[in-house]
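**Entry details**
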Amino acid sequence: TQFDCTGTLPALPNGATHSDTATVTAVGIDSRTPVDDEDEWGGRVPAPSIDIEKWNVETEGVGPEYDESGALTNDGYDGDFDAPRGKAMGVGENLLINFTISNDGNEVLEDIVVSDELTDGSGVIEDLYCVFPDGSTGTEWAGPFEIAVQFDCTGMLPALGEGERHSDLAKVTGVGVDSRTEVDDEDSWNAYVPGPSIDIEKWNDEGEAPEYDETGLLLNDGFAGDFDDDSKELVAGTETTLRFTVSNDGEEALIDVAVSDELTDGVGTITDLVCVFPDGSTGTSWDGPFDVGTQFECAGTLPALNAGESHADLAKVTGVGITSGIAVGDEDEWSAAVPPAEVATEGPNEEGTDAPEGSTPNTGVEGSALLMALASVLLLGGGGALLYARRKRVDA
């Protein structure tokens, strides 16, 4: 004969595994011999994952490589230009860009979508398409995308001009066939054409300042105080000191450097703008030379704004390559606003109780009663005057 037992395995998170051993023991009714048995059972929750690598072919190196599970084994390979400046390109040179996508999880995927977004500089990737494992092409694929399998995509980076830069972000998304878990990955790629370049950052002191590497390249874009997209909340009636940091992040010393600021929306033109140049001179224009990898600072004052007012402006810098004669420039937005003034309302105080004795809040009911009383007095007074006048005429 047999009998059955049941038990419940608690829910496991994605990627978790479970192994257990069921055991039974008993004793022979006549022989008194102990007996036992056991049985193992295991399970796992699929942990879907996907990886994308964006790269270009470098003659001295190789592309991405993967192990039997689909995991990347040579991160940082030649052609994997994740960080700026990235790959040095020639002027007028188109470049074929490669994308490799791998299922590096433990679940088959479907609904695969590949895309690419320009994040800085110039040069939107053109003609992006993929060849999927089933031989179909495009940027979207229903699947199934088997575990440890890869496919490739290509796109064309248009030619860049002297001193131009390119930064973009390749993205891939998918869905686990069984778990329905959405997965994604992204990979940045960067390139530049050697030449003169200049950068300006406009900011207010929020505890952070722009930071640069030895080449003059900004390292912490989006630092606190860099209100490019968000708006700084100001206090009404208070001036604000604004700072400008200018960096030579190109490959050539610059001359004829000029800094300016323009109000683009709202109120509050920046006043008293002045820079301290590397040679110790001050002003908003400088002959130079402005050496590669160096910075200088400027400051100006935003006049006090009133409640409800806003401010947006554009800081600009220009310069000229000392050898090439190429004109370069950059600009940076900064915005702020003062919240609208709160409108005072009559009624219960903050504790929700009536106003203190001696105050006369307008509750509506008491006001109406007062008006009615005044009207009654006026009517009575007016009636008495009329009666008195009539009596005088009769007596006369």
Summary: The chain has two domains: 51-193, 198-338. The helical segments are 365-395. The two ends are 133 Å apart (CA to CA). Residues 51-193 form a domain with the Immunoglobulin-like fold (CATH 2.60.40).
